[in-house]
Amino acid sequence: MSHHTTHRDDATTHDTHDTYDRLIALLDTAAVPYELLDHAPEGVTETVCALRGNALSEAAKCIVLRVKVDRRTTRNVLAVVPGDRRVDLDAVKALYSARYAGFSDAATAERLARSVPGTVLPFSFDPDLEVVADPDVVTQPRLYFNAARLDRSLVMSGADYARLATPRIERIASPAAT
Q1: CB–CB of 171/132 below 8 Å?
Q2: Alpha-helical runs (H) found in 30-151
């Protein structure tokens, strides 16, 4: 019987690297073209877009949501919207005919997304996390997102993203502020 225990800190660091490795393995196996961009550690969409030199609309903003369908059923949803937009919680609620839709707490989001806030991928490696992407995400010729790390981003086409991540595609982004 093994008495090996992992400390929380090790687990977190390991998970993040593991998530990054899984992403790269997925892309390489699918032979999908992508680019990696190294930059200063940053997880805020506006700031990281400036560092990468891409438009906000080309960024995938990924938010873990808690959707209470009824008293017994809660779904975890990974909402993926363009960087210049917000998640429309009412639209998500309507999508699931739910009583409530709101943001997940940080610990739950981190556990399900297997990465820290600011580095959440538009992919799910957890069967309990369903991906819903706004149509404006998958039509981007170049889609940018943090690659499960604050210091590295990935660029791929929205079409390849949709093919690999197989998100449910629904209008879940509120209109861009004018």
Answers
A1: no
A2: 45-52, 89-95, 106-113, 135-138
Radius of gyration of the chain from Cα atoms?
16
Q: Which residues, 6+ apart, have CB-to-CB distance to 72 below 8 Å? A: none
CA distance 104 to 99: 15
Q: CA–CA distance from 2 to each of 5, 6, 8, 156 (Å)? A: 9, 12, 18, 42
The DSSP call for residue 114 is T
- What is the mean pLDDT of the segment spanning 166-177? 92
Task: Using alpha carbons only, give the angle 28, 167, 127 rounded to the nearest 5 degrees.
Answer: 80
Report the percentage of the chain scoring pLDDT > 90.
87
Give the three-class secondary structure for 174.
Answer: coil
- What token pair was written down for 62? 């990924």
Q: Does residue 142 have a pLDDT over 70?
A: yes
Name every residue whose Cβ is closer than 8 Å to that of residue 9 and which is 6 or more positions away in sequence. none
What's the pTM value of the predicted model, to 2 decimals? Answer: 0.90
